[in-house]
Amino acid sequence: MMRKMISVIWPSGRAPVGRAAACALALLLAAGCISMPEHSVVSAARTPIVPSQELSTVVFLRPGVAGHFFAVVVDAKSRYYGHFGPRQYAVAEVPPGRHTFSSWSYSVNGEMWAPNLIHANLEPGRIYYVLLRGWTGYPLRGVDLEALSPQRDEWTNLDNWLSASKQLDVDSEAGTRSLPAKLIRRASAGAKEAYADYRAAKQQLHNIGPSDGQLTAPTLPPN
């Protein structure tokens, strides 16, 4: 399957160029010299992940260290769920029912990397997990949004992944206002095109069903 790349406007108005710039950006991120986007900041303390009786809880989790870049997550209504770097997660409460979450990453040349999506059918009172699987290649890199449930072998890694990751405080309203509608439309179109190209088994990874949600909270380490 060919990964998608779409040209977009670099937020600062101009982009650094060349492979040297890409390597420099990766080193700065790895060293912690580049701060998180202002609408997604590392929380000073973890908060318990508990199910809501009336809403559905969604945990967006990006484990591992593959790719020193941020991935953006939004839904079909343009709601912002965060910029995710490696080993970071965020918790969101959403109305039960059907949702589509989309993600993309930026290149140093202002290009949108690998837009993709996940469909979710959610029930109230349950906790659902969306895995942001980072991958790198040349010239593209990005994350894939995948369902993480007890039916997958990787489910046994959940507690360790959460323990090794930092929780984000996400200002959803401010983040939503900061993203241009045109950008989100282009990302959504690219994600739908990528999903249509997936084989059936791959599409299955990009769908969350009601029974994939958990009724109990995960185990988190003390602050």
Topology (elements, then pairings):
Layout (H helix, E strand, L loop, with lengths): L4 E3 L10 H14 L8 E3 L13 E7 L8 E5 L4 E5 L3 E7 L2 E10 L4 E12 L4 E10 L4 E8 L9 H6 L2 E5 L1 H7 L2 H17 L2 H6 L1 E2 L15
Parallel strand pairs: 3-9, 6-11, 8-12
Antiparallel strand pairs: 1-8, 2-11, 3-6, 4-5, 4-7, 7-8, 9-10
Report what the structure shows:
The chain is 22% helix and 35% strand. The protein has five helices and twelve strands. Strands 1, 4, 5, 7, 8 and 12 form a six-stranded mixed beta sheet that branches. It has a six-stranded mixed beta sheet with strand order 2-11-6-3-9-10. A hairpin with a 4-residue loop joins strand 9 and strand 10. The longest helix is centred in the C-terminal third of the chain and has 17 residues. The protein starts with a strand and ends in a 15-residue tail after the last strand.
